[in-house]
Amino acid sequence: MKREITLEEYVEKLERKSRWDALRTAYENASRRKIRLVDPDPPKTLGSYILRLDYSAWFWTLIILTIATVGVVYASNILPALTLIRYLLGTVYVLFLPGYVLVEALYPGEEDLKPLERLALSIGLSLAVIPLIGLLLNYTPWGIRLDPLIMALTVYNTALGLIAAERKHGIVRRKLSTYPSL
């Protein structure tokens, strides 16, 4: 059995012209599955998974976009100059994020879908989910107004984001059990 080497040792073996060329070659080999990159210290708990940005940058982007959108929506009532930003963030918040978190929850593996498929499904599923949320809100005492809609979308996006994080962490856990020496 071959001895596993670190990425740094592999890049040093590849260094011909420059370190950048060696890194690009290592990336291409990993993309073509000629080499397998394994995290020497993967997160063992959901909390450590969420706190490690190399695993959960998508989750923190979701949280930051949610906070920014809610903040800009309410701040634009006071500062009309934020109206354009409100429209841009609102469009992403309504037409992309609900479908994106659903796609991440349904297909947690990186290799499950190509990026273009993820984008198309995110937009398409958002167009399907938003009317359902509106339909549910219509039968509540609050109705379809700004505050209940923002609250419902925030709860939906955060809840599905946490479900997706748990499913993605499950994939990392299964890989960890595959390599018990790590």
Automatic annotation (TrEMBL):
The chain crosses the membrane at residues 57-75, 87-107, 119-137, 149-165. Keywords: Membrane, Transmembrane, Transmembrane helix. Residues 65-170 form the DUF1616 domain. This is DUF1616 domain-containing protein.
